[in-house]
Amino acid sequence: MYRFVLTATVLAAVGVLLAGDALAQTDEFELPPVKLKPDRPIKAKPIPPTPDEREVQPPEEPAPPPEPPPAPKEEEPEEPKAPVTPPEPVLPKPAPTPPAEVKPAPVPLKPEKPTESEPPTPADLPMPKPITEPPETAPETIALPEREAPPPVMPPTEKPEPRPTDVQSQAIEAQVTPTVQPDLSGMGEVGLVEAVAMARKQYERSLEALRVYYQNRGTSTKIEWVESEIQGFGNVPKVRYLIAAELAGPNLKPTQNIEAADQLYAEGLNYKDYPAFPPGKKDYLKTALEKFRTIIEKYPQSDKIDDAAFCMGEIYGGWYFQDYARAVQSYERCWQWNPTTEHPARFNAAKIFDEKLKNRAKAVELYNEVLAKSQNEDIVRQAQERIRALTGR
């Protein structure tokens, strides 16, 4: 049994090998049929016609130009229509009155109604009332508040007077009563200088009074004249022929302490030493000179008169004024009024005579006074050097 099974198995294996070789030698394999989906219809694109097959279309004719719109007809003015007069209404005839003997009561007659078959006549119809247009009324006007009329501008009554010429000025002066002229003969320098100063003040006051007079009268042209003259008078340089130190003389003595003089002296120093540049610096120096002059003129007994004189000498002898004569005069009044003054008045005056005025004799004289009366060693040494240079000793 065992052998039988083994033999069958071997035979089956041999059969399988033979069948495989047979299949290997053949190239055809039988595959199961594959179900295909139904084909979709293919949409064919239209083929454009060739140039020969295209129909030749005639060219399009240009469109005719649009016709212009008809010109608007001028409306002829309508002729005024004659007013339609309505027909006169036909009134019913009154009934005949009976004889006078019989007076029956009047019976009102009713108008006969038209039958349905007969249409009413125009006489039986009520007449229409004539249409009357309302009278035209003027538009209402709104009354505005009346404005006050501005006052009329009156032309100036006064005409500008022309500026007098030289001939007119001479004619005016000829009609003025001459004033008595003061006798100036025999007056010294001081008197003449005072007369000039008084004449200046009187002239300035007269111009101011004249301007006030024209301002009250409203004469604009003459106001301009007098103001121009006042301005010109202010611009004219006024020379001081005699300074305050000359008018006071050498005999003043500083014996009193006056507060007003001290205040003026402090203000003068502030203006004198104020750090400014030209031309402003010169204006400050002028103000300082006025302060110092006021001390000497108004307070001659003040202990600040010698200090004021020394400051005036420095201003006059400085670069802005260079008035060396007045500078020497001021220095001289300083040591004359106070011989023991601490200011180097003699030394400054000696330098002006030495360097500016070239008066060597006066310079040596003052240098010697410095050696005798000054306590300042530096000034004494400089005075000795200048004496040696001027005299050779």
Blueprint of the fold:
Blueprint: H1 2-25, H2 166-175, H3 189-217, H4 220-235, H5 244-248, H6 259-272, H7 280-298, H8 305-316, H9 324-337, H10 345-356, H11 360-373, H12 377-391
Can you walk through the features of this model?
By secondary structure, the protein is mainly α. Among the domains are: 187-242; 253-391, Alpha Horseshoe (Serine Threonine Protein Phosphatase 5, Tetratricopeptide repeat). It is 47% helix and 0% strand. It contains twelve helices and no strands. It has helices at residues 2-25, 166-175, 189-217, 220-235, 244-248, 259-272, 280-298, 305-316, 324-337, 345-356, 360-373, 377-391. Helix 7 (280-298) runs antiparallel to helix 8 and helix 9 (324-337) packs antiparallel against helix 10 (345-356).
Instruction: Give me the CATH superfamily of one domain.
Output: Tetratricopeptide repeat domain
Broad shape? elongated
Share in β-strands = under 5%
Query: Quick one: biggest sheet?
Result: none
> Which structural class matches the secondary elements?
mainly alpha
| Helical residue percent band | 40-55%
- SSE topology string: HHHHHHHHHHHH
Return the average pLDDT rounded to an integer: 76
Number of helices: 12
The CATH class of one domain is: Mainly Alpha
CATH topology of one domain: Serine Threonine Protein Phosphatase 5, Tetratricopeptide repeat
- Are there runs of 5+ residues with pLDDT below 50, and where? none
> Count the strands?
0
* Reported CATH architecture of one domain: Alpha Horseshoe
C-alpha termini separation = 184 Å
Rg, Cα atoms, Å: 71 Å
